[in-house]
Amino acid sequence: MRALPSTIPQRSLLGAIKRSSLASLISLRYFILRSSTAGSALIAGLIQTFVFARVLTPEDFSIFILVGTLGVSMWLFDLGVPKILFVRLRACHLAGTTDTIVAGQANAVTLLYALLVGIGAMICFAVIAAQPTITWLHAAEFALFFLFSALNLVWFVLRNLSVAVDKYIYFETLEAFRRVVHIAAMLAMLVGLPLTVFLIAVNLMWALLFTLAARKLLRHGALTTQWRGVIVRLRQFFRENKHSALRTGTHAACELYIHNALYLVVPVAFGLGAPTIVADTTLKIFFGALVLYSAACDVLVPRQTSAYAARDPITLARATYLAAGLCAVPALAISGLLVFGAAPLFAVLLGPAATMPAEATPILIALLAAGLAKTVANSLLLHTGYFRDIARLAAAIAIVMTMAMILAVAAGSDMIGLLKIYAAIYVGGTALYVTLVIRGPVRTARNTHAAA
Questions:
Q1: Could you give the CA distance from residue 322 to residue 304 in angstroms, rounded to a whole number?
Q2: Which residue from 33, 118, 319, 364 has the least number of CB within 10 angstroms?
Q3: Per-residue DSSP letters for 362-419?
């Protein structure tokens, strides 16, 4: 296994870490901010289910679920490029240098993703507006919801750039503002705020956040003021990183498919309405937990990457164990809530729209446990540059999951059977990710340290 080579002198970096006031493993302020934004993301997902189940018909609710899923599917165009930019910018930042070429390429990638999202929203509007039973206003609402969901793709680029240059606290402050406004606007629909006004407001909020984040990144060399020559810079980026882009792109696409496979299968096999709403609710809680896990891992990324670059296995292991411990807090809390209060929780969330089967609870708890281990492993592998290995692993899991679901539907499996198969494959894939971490960055740091 081979990760991206570090350009940072190991002895000088290790000395800097020892002398630095940031020698502790974790920034308490960042931890509080990141935890609050991740927790509010989970709450926002549940509130969205609660509100939509009451202000929309079951059919419109299920269509909004599918439109939102298509918006999230814009991650197919991610190609893992933000992680490549992160690795390169992080190396420069730790070495105390700047790279205007990488910053210019970050400009180009950000603009490319924004353009793709805009095109996707226009296609969404055109397709839905072409339906004879749907008005233009209704089609515009679906397109705005698609835009709101898909703009996370662009935001993710800025998040990685912010962490690479240690401006993650400012970014998380903006993220906290976004979550508060989003939740408040959704709750306002329960007291009469029109859906159209809500959708316009949350998209205007995106515009404000992108402006503020870009200004901060410009001042710290993660972006540049030269916005021309986008095509040239994109060609240069993919020419220099074609192998890494292919690997990260494969990994990103397969991961997106793995996490959203049920959204593709359930509507086809069981129809819209209650089955799709049940699958969405299960996955929404699971994905909300994954957001919390990612938040915990993000807090340790600066420490893990600096320790890995210095080939400091002890600090790397401590930071990774701490990430897993932080992930365990929301995992235990959500699992406890499901064990002792699943029935009333789902009854409040779904109301008359659908009934959650009791058998879904143990499956969801198993997914929560597997998601914890996989998120910790995947975060370390991504941020230390093990792109080739995770691309191969994700592709293999996606193939196995596809075959299993095809066989399950052909055999007449019900919703619970399909959820069990999904969870079993996810757990098996998680075991392989953990094995890859031990054989990859952990072994590399340990062996290089021992040789030194």
A1: 11
A2: 118
A3: HHHHHHHHHHHHHHHHHHHHHHTT-HHHHHHHHHHHHHHHHHHHHHHHHTT--HHHHH
Residue of 185, 361, 174, 352 lying closest to 286 (CA atoms): 361
Check: CB of residue 372 under 8 Å from CB of residue 330: no
* Cβ atoms of residues 393 and 432 within 8 Å: yes
CB of 47 closer than 8 Å to CB of 183: yes
Q: What single letter denotes the amino acid at residue 380?
A: L
**Cβ neighbours of residue 431 closer than 8 Å, sequence gap 6 or more:** none
Helices (H) and strands (E) in the chain, counts: 17, 0
Distance CA 15, CA 22 (A): 12
Burial class (CB in 10 A: 0-12, 13-18, 19+), 181: middle
Q: pTM (2 decimals)?
A: 0.66
The pLDDT averaged over each successive group of 10 residues in the chain (452 residues) is: 42 40 60 79 82 82 80 72 82 78 88 91 90 85 91 89 86 90 91 90 93 90 81 86 80 83 78 73 84 84 82 85 90 90 77 72 92 93 85 93 88 83 92 90 72 54
> What local confidence, expressed as pLDDT, does residue 24 receive?
54
Tell me which DSSP letter residue 438 carries.
Answer: I
- Residue position matching structure tokens 């299968």: 265
How much is the pLDDT for 7?
A: 38
* Nearest alpha-carbon partner for 5 in 318, 368, 312, 311: 311
